[in-house]
Structure formats: structure tokens, C-alpha cells
Amino acid sequence: MGTIDLVALEIFRTVAEQGGIGRAAMKLNRVQSNVTTRVKQLEHSLGVTLFLRQGRGIVLSPEGRVLLSYAERLLTSQMGSRPVEYGFATRADIEAMAAAFRAWARHPDAFWAFVHVAALARKPGG
Question: Which residues have a Cβ under 8 Å from the Cβ of 80 and sit 6 or more positions away?
């Protein structure tokens, strides 16, 4: 089963913040090829392009902006004491999120809410 690990999300977030692979690699104290590989693996797992080239740097794609908001919440919750409320782990979850990203790209002004099916199946108070 495929997973998205917190290290990959942290690398993704740092690349987004720094606006480039090289600057992110320096900040993370990693070699540039490692950062590039991790970003490409994340893109492949999700089936979307997360960054677009712009001049000498890169910018987030629409899908990348959506993932960044989730990544920031997930990474922030991991640093605090509250349980993780955002994220996806299984291959089915990743495929569903990738499909949602593609749909969102076609309809960027729509309101989207994601609810985990297991949460719907829970009984109140149980």
C-alpha cells in the first residue's frame, strides 16, 4: 500500500516556501538530487504536477496549492499535541485525492469538502 510520509511533505513545503529546489536543498541540508527525487515521487504518488517552472524558479501548480494547505495543517498538528486530523495514507486514499485534485483543477471556484468514509460509518458516542 502506498503512503505519503511526513518527510516528503516537509520537503514539498520547503520547496514551496523557498521557490526552488536548490534553495530548499540548502535549507534542508540535503543534496539537490534528493529533494528533486522526493518531489517527483510525491507527484507520481498523487498523479499530479505540484510545481510549474517560472523563470529561474518554480511556483506551485493549482494542485500544489491545495496540497500545501493540507501539508501545513498536517505538519503543524504533528508538532503539537493534538491528533492528526488531515492526511491520507492508503493507495486508495491517494488515488481519490489525485482524482479530486484533477476535478478541482477543472473547477477551481467550487467548494470542496473531503470526509473519510470511516468517519461516516462511526456511530455517535461510539
Answer: none
